[in-house]
Write a structure and sequence with these properties.
With 177 residues, the protein is mainly alpha-helical. It has a single domain, classed as Ferritin, core subunit, four-helix bundle (Ferritin, Up-down Bundle), CATH 1.20.1260.10. The chain has six helices and no strands. It starts with 8 loop residues before the first helix and ends with a helix. This is Bacterioferritin.
């Protein structure tokens, strides 16, 4: 394993005093910030669209097996909302602005908002959306690499939870067959 060279203390102190208006973004930040901010805002839109879809499904799920699915829909909705808060916080740390404009959400979201008319359709649409998030977040993690480890770790954490959501939806779908 190759060790990265360490900067001496005086240089670290001197650099920290430069461009202090950029907050957490220091000279050592090597990612393409406009691209990272775009990806974060796309992920924010994805999480908000997923939150809205899960929340709708929680309220409208009916049928004999709906109570188990509805419980998962509610839990996932809450987690998607938490993801959106984490993404918005990171956007702010990088000097961007989180875009919560409802008119922009479906345009930027990787996942679609499909209401679904039956419980089975709702589960399928949630599973499809989770699979989209998994693939897109996995690509973002690879893109970020070591250029922005903080954002990469954030996406890795969200990705792990999206994989759990997909497993939950796949299990419910199997029970509906």
């Amino acid at each position: 394993m190759r060790e990265a060279p360490l900067t001496d203390i005086q240089t670290l102190r001197q650099r920290a005093r430069q461009n202090i208006d950029q907050g957490a973004v220091t000279e050592g930040y090597h990612a393409d910030r406009p691209t990272v901010l775009r990806l974060l805002n796309e992920a924010l839109a994805t999480e908000l669209v997923c939150y809205l879809r899960y929340k709708r499904h929680y309220h409208v799920a009916t049928g004999l097996k709906a109570s188990i699915a509805a419980g998962e829909f509610l839990e996932h909705a809450q987690q998607e909302l938490q993801h959106s808060d984490l993404l918005a916080e990171r956007i702010m740390q990088l000097g961007g602005e989180p875009d919560f404009d409802p008119q922009h959400l479906t345009q930027r979201s990787h996942a679609e908002y499909v209401a679904g008319s039956s419980l089975k359709e709702m589960v399928i649409e949630n599973l499809v959306a989770e699979r989209i998030a998994i693939d897109s977040y996995r690509e973002i993690v690879a893109y970020l690499g070591e250029a922005d480890p903080t954002t990469r770790r954030l996406f890795e954490e969200i990705l792990a939870q999206e994989e759990e959501h997909a497993d939950d939806m796949a299990d419910i779908l199997a029970d509906l067959k």
